[in-house]
Amino acid sequence: MPTAAKLFAAFAFAIVAFFTAEVFKPHMPEGTQFGYFSLVSALIGAICGWKVMGPEAGRGNLMALSSGMKTALFMALVALFVFSTYEMLREAFRPSYSGPMEAVVAIFEFAVDYFVAFLAWDVLIVLFVGGALAGSFSEWAARRWR
């Protein structure tokens, strides 16, 4: 059932994901082609905001902060999996792997590489402070429109 809290959470986490992706880009190797990276990240943020934060809004301000950070972490893990899988598929079409297990292992190799780049302090600050603010925004919407 659509609610104002879910709508506001989707919008807020889409913005958080977009800006986190923009802050993340300089931490990748020189010459990396990003394409729709920020927009796909925003879509992942909107879905996570709707599905994870939206139902948890309306339980108080402290819960909103922690739920916002939990949603931000979940959003980052989903994005990590999505982009790692995309890179594996991109490499798979250039016959880089000798078998399917090597391709599956490559997903985790790409994920580790992205995770190391993701551990920059500015990326983590944007993600978690933005997640806490987005959680508070969703809480505000839940209280405003019951």
UniProtKB/TrEMBL annotation:
Keywords: Membrane, Transmembrane, Transmembrane helix
Annotated transmembrane regions: 33-50, 62-83, 103-136
The keyword Transmembrane helix is annotated on this UniProt entry: yes
Designated name of the protein: TrgA family protein
